[in-house]
Specification:
The complex is a heterodimer of chains A (404) and B (399). In chain A, 57% of the residues lie in helices and 18% in strands. Chain A has 404 residues and is α+β, with helices and mostly antiparallel strands. Chain A folds into two domains: 192 residues, no CATH class; 173 residues, no CATH class. In chain A, the strands form two sheets. In chain A, strands 3-4-9-6-8-7 form a six-stranded mixed beta barrel, surrounded by four helices. The two termini of chain B are 29 Å apart. The relative contact order of chain B is 0.18. In chain B, strands 2-3-8-5-7-6 form a six-stranded mixed barrel. Chain B contains twelve helices and ten strands. The chains are: A alpha+beta (404), B alpha+beta (399). Chains A and B meet through helix 2, helix 3, strand 3, strand 4 and helix 9 of A and helix 2, strand 2, strand 3 and helix 8 of B.
Chain lengths: 404, 399
């Protein structure tokens, strides 16, 4: 029975081929745009999130300046941390390891070229080193990482080694940081991330010497001990630091962010961008839906007599309704299939083009939820737009319909 | 003759009310989206231009690092300042330092940008030097004076609105509010506080060689772009850098406006082209409607041809019909687009972003209308050609 309705619907679509195609085009364009945009933004989100997750979800980052400032607080805030704050944090319960780093922008000279770069002073005690070994972001591609006792040695990211200067930097080369000689002892593995490949790491003690800064700490990174709740530890750190710095709750001159919070912030921002773009693209789906409605109304008018005959030989209202609904649902579905294929193709092309330009975070997401969601949505639009015309068709009185 | 074509088209619309209406909706939605996006984008551009113009086109800005609020702790020094001042054609060079600082007002504590401005001897007011116009009270002049942005004198940053004469604490030091700065239209800029340069050095523990910005006023008769080049050359010398390795940015106000304009234009192009997809779909709808119309009126076309209508006449009848669909959709779309963008601008202003405003220049309205007609006519061309090429005998025989 249902199969018969389906056959009627299909044959009707074939009878008016041109009209059917034009209607399908209307839907397919919209689905294509939405699918391509969702695919790209979802892919980008996944790529960045996996970089976040590589760092681990048991991390806390502590920066000076109010809560609104976020991770750049250490650079722009008038408030600074000192080694004393770092000591307090280190001793907080639940903190497995805390790294107080000091960062300054400096002149990096290689050969005859000089570039301005951010230089990071990292602690090189044995506990810190053990921690670096467990972190993929500290992975060394060539040479070795800093070790206790190193002075005036530097480890650089892949981009600094291969792109920053005209000539490539190799392990063993000498570079100048603020006119002091440093030996390059290691080059990090390429991570594909913007920050990771641009780092310049030197021992913190050496940084204190060349920048003549005895105590300032730019930021403190923490790893939470196993078995402790990250949020609880963050609260502990906050409370201890409040006491030490003598500030009231809610008036902290520093911010404590867990990795989960950082991910949330990032997701929220990307979510807004995605909603705006997809929202605007979805307007074309609305217009495509109106096209389906139009086609279906025309179809009902043209087939008034046919409806009359079907009703007079016993077709119920529900049967007529179903025939027309199927017809419009098929239109939507067909547009959806074409749209999904072309939309995914489009985003794949974008991914390949972006990769050519070295942008690796622009990736096409081609997951099943997107494909199924888009198809279901296309079918939904088709049936919704067809429902009014279908109702009209089903309510025709057979006598009037036959007389037409 | 032409009037007859219009009458014919009108007749069809009335005859097929529902179909005409749905086709119109298709076009109107797309036009409304495009019009409101352009209107808001242009409005924002206009507001930004206005702010720069208030500052004057005879300005050159010097910043350390890569520009913007750069993270590098790189600074400009007194030596740099002297080098800039000694350039011929430089009328005046004023410095500024920026920091995010702890600010207390009443019982509330917040962290916001505090800017130290040079209030020393000058031919010009601070508003002319830095483009910070005081709308109430006076400009800062002495130690302890502070000017505050809109979000502070109109509540927003603090629960209570601050007024002239109120005391605030910056980094633990007491200041008196002496002036309210004109609203800039975005919450970050409107939350700024300005104090004197010496107070800023004192409060933030900075030296005279920790400059974040130099605002240069160019003498009448000198071209800002020439002066900018001279400044670059002078600073390369004082900072001992080769060309191409600059660790500072020199921009004229024109270049700054352009930089903003370029970013804004890119965003606009992306959004409008995505919105434009719906216009394409609307156009396909018109094509569809017109094909249906041609099919339904095959007999009519046959009769018209039999009594002497030329191919051209038939073509025009159908083209005018689809063109009218486009134009009417465009008119409704423009009206809806204006309403929509006004609504968005109103909402944004309520949220502190008065910089997002809607403007409707004549070229937007006429352009949108012309485009809507173009979409309609183009979409109708194929069906109209098909109609005009029908053979009268076949058309009359068609059932």
């Amino acid at each position: 029975m249902i199969l018969d309705y389906f056959r009627i619907a299909v044959s009707n679509l074939f009878k008016r081929k041109l009209r059917s195609w034009l209607t399908v085009i209307g839907i397919f364009i919209g689905i294509m745009a939405v699918v391509a945009l969702v695919s790209l933004s979802q892919g980008m989100q996944n790529a960045i999130l996996s970089e976040f997750k590589k760092m681990g979800t048991d991390r806390i980052i502590l920066t000076p300046g109010g809560a609104k400032m976020g991770p750049v607080g250490g650079f722009i805030s008038s408030v600074k941390f000192s080694e004393a704050d770092y000591d307090i944090v280190k001793k907080t319960k639940g903190v497995e390891i805390a790294l107080g780093v000091y960062s300054q922008s400096a002149y990096l000279t290689f050969g005859r070229e000089t570039k301005q770069q951010l230089v990071w002073g990292f602690p090189t005690d044995s506990k810190a080193l053990e921690f670096y070994r467990s972190q993929s972001m500290f992975d060394i591609g060539e040479g070795r990482f800093l070790r206790p006792g190193d002075r005036y040695k530097v480890v650089i990211g892949a981009t600094v080694a291969n792109e920053t200067f005209e000539k490539d930097i190799h392990v063993g080369d000498m570079v100048m940081i603020n006119a002091r000689e440093f030996q390059v002892i290691g080059i990090h593995k390429k991570s594909g991330g913007l920050v990771g490949d641009n780092v310049i790491r030197i021992p913190k003690e050496t940084a204190r010497e060349i920048f003549n800064e005895p105590s300032e700490v730019t930021a403190i990174f923490m790893k939470v001990k196993e078995g402790y709740n990250v949020d609880d530890v963050a609260d502990n750190v906050k409370r201890k630091l409040r006491n030490f710095r003598d500030v009231k709750e809610g008036e902290e001159d520093f911010s404590v962010q867990t990795s989960a919070q950082a991910i949330q912030t990032f997701e929220a921002i990307l979510g807004i961008v995605q909603a705006v773009l997809v929202g605007i693209a979805a307007i074309s789906l609305l217009v495509g839906g109106i096209g389906i409605m139009n086609t279906m109304y025309t179809s009902v008018v043209e087939r008034t007599r046919e409806i009359g005959i079907m009703k007079s030989v016993g077709a119920r209202n529900s049967a007529i309704l179903l025939i027309f609904l199927m017809e419009s649902g098929l239109l939507g579905m067909l547009g959806g299939i074409l749209g999904v294929i072309l939309g995914l193709g489009l985003s794949k092309v974008a991914e390949i083009v972006a990769a050519q330009y070295g942008i690796e975070t622009l990736q096409a997401y081609t997951g099943l939820p997107l494909i199924i969601g888009a198809l279901a949505f296309a079918f939904f639009i088709g049936s919704v737009s067809g429902s009014l015309p279908a109702r009209q068709a089903s309510k025709l009185s057979p006598v009037d319909a036959l007389r037409k | 003759m032409l009037a007859d074509y219009f009458k014919l088209a009108y007749g069809t619309f009335v005859h097929q009310k529902k179909r005409t209406f749905l086709t119109l909706i298709g076009i109107f939605i797309g036009i409304a989206a495009v019009v409101s996006l352009i209107s808001l984008g242009q409005g924002m551009k206009y507001e930004i231009d206005k702010q720069f113009q208030a500052l004057g086109s005879n300005k050159v800005f010097v910043q350390p690092g890569g520009g913007g609020f750069d993270l590098s702790s790189n600074k400009l020094t007194q030596k740099d300042l002297q080098a800039v001042k000694s350039i011929q054609g430089v009328d005046e060079a004023k410095v500024a330092v920026f920091k995010i600082a702890q600010v207390k007002f009443g019982k509330e504590t917040v962290y916001t940008w505090v800017i130290g401005l040079d209030t020393g001897k000058s031919k010009y007011t601070l508003s002319e030097d830095y483009g910070m116009k005081v709308v109430e009270g006076r400009e800062i002049a002495d130690s302890g004076d502070a000017m505050v942005g809109y979000e502070i004198w109109n509540s927003g940053l603090f629960d209570k609105a601050a007024s002239i004469g109120d005391r605030i604490k910056i980094e633990g030091k007491k200041f008196k509010i002496v002036g309210n700065v004109e609203r800039r239209g975005n919450p970050q800029d409107d939350s700024q506080i300005e104090i004197t340069f010496d107070d800023a050095l004192d409060a933030f523990d900075l030296t005279e060689d920790d400059l974040d910005y130099i605002f240069v006023t160019v003498k009448d008769g000198s071209r800002p772009s020439d002066i900018a080049e001279k400044i670059k050359k002078a600073l390369r010398k004082t900072r001992d850098l080769e060309e191409g390795d600059e660790d500072f940015v020199v921009q004229t106000s024109e270049e700054l406006i352009e930089a903003f304009g370029t970013i804004l234009t890119i965003i606009q192009i992306v959004l409008i082209s995505i919105a434009g997809i719906s216009l394409l779909v609307g156009g396909v709808n018109i094509t569809n409607t017109m094909y249906t119309s041609v099919l339904e009126r095959t007999n009519e076309i046959g009769i018209m041809k039999a009594i002497g209508a030329r191919n051209r006449d038939i073509f025009l009848i159908f083209l005018i019909e689809s063109g009218i669909l486009g134009v009417v959709g465009g008119v409704i779309g423009i009206a809806a687009g204006i309403g929509l963008s006004k609504l968005v601008a109103f909402g944004a202003a309520a949220g502190g972003y008065s910089i997002i405003s809607a403007i409707f220049p004549w070229y937007l309205i006429s352009g949108a209308l012309a485009f809507a007609f173009f979409v309609g006519a183009l979409a109708g061309t194929l069906p109209a050609i098909q109609a005009s090429k029908l053979k009268p005998v076949d058309a009359l025989r068609y059932e």
